[in-house]
Amino acid sequence: MKNQSLLSISIVALSIGMVTGVGVLNAPNACAAEEMVSFKEDILPLLKWRCASCHEPGGSGYEKSGLDLTSYAGLMKGTKFGAMVIPREPESSNLMLLLDWRASPALRMPHGKKQLSSCDRSTIRTWIRQGAKNN
Q1: CA 130, chain centre distance (Å)
Q2: Residue 90 to residues 3, 72, 95, 96, 112: CA-CA distances in angstroms?
Q3: Which of 7, 29, 62, 96 is at a distance of 20 to 30 A from 37, taking alpha carbons?
Q4: pTM of the model
């Protein structure tokens, strides 16, 4: 009976959180599932930190693909092989294919380095899902 009461309380608390938008589990440093993601504040710093050393003019990744990850325009221009981002379609976007390591090992990004964390990839995925805006 005691476990049943705790379960009922948990369900009510979760329901209230879902209806009011108040998070029930607000852990520090947790990934925010659907908060508005900003290119300028969230995506660009991440790309510059993890990707731009290769994907900037003069970098090896830029020379091979033509992809410049130092700006919104560069990312949205894509590569000489095609688009990297399809707004509102993260699972169809080549950027996510490469970052999620769903491509051959030779194409996985960042090349020869540790994979981006699931939180970082989730942030990029959310930004794409939200329309890949220059915000």
Answers
A1: 11
A2: 40, 16, 8, 6, 23
A3: 62
A4: 0.74
- Rounded Cα distance between 44 and 124, Å, is 10
Q: How far apart are CA 72 and CA 109, in angstroms?
A: 18
Q: What is the DSSP string of 117-132?
A: PHHHHHHHHHHHHTT-
Extract the tokens encoding 12.
């009510």
Residues 17-37: tens digit of each pLDDT: 433 344 434 434 455 457 999
Contact by Cβ (8 Å): 127, 32:
no
CA 21 to chain centre: 22
Residues in the chain: 135
